[in-house]
Amino acid sequence: MQVVCLQEEAFYALFDKVVEHIEATRKDKPSKWIDGEEALSILNIKSASTLQRLRDEGKIRFSQPQPRTILYDRESLHEFIENHARETF
Question: Can you give the residue ranges of every domain in the chain?
Fold first, then answer.
């Protein structure tokens, strides 16, 4: 059996590289484009008309690859939420 000793800084640098590698190779990464149901869930809203209003006003990014299919950019939804966050006192 071999024992390897590392300095604390080297250990954490190695640990960070392992985490980066695992995240890069994960196959179950969340999709960039999501459907309306998941968008409603992320935004915590109940009404599809509110989602449509956000689209129409250009507040969230979307794609319409087919006439009845609308997909939403997951990152733009999170950005929308962050842009409306208020700092506490």
Answer: 33-83
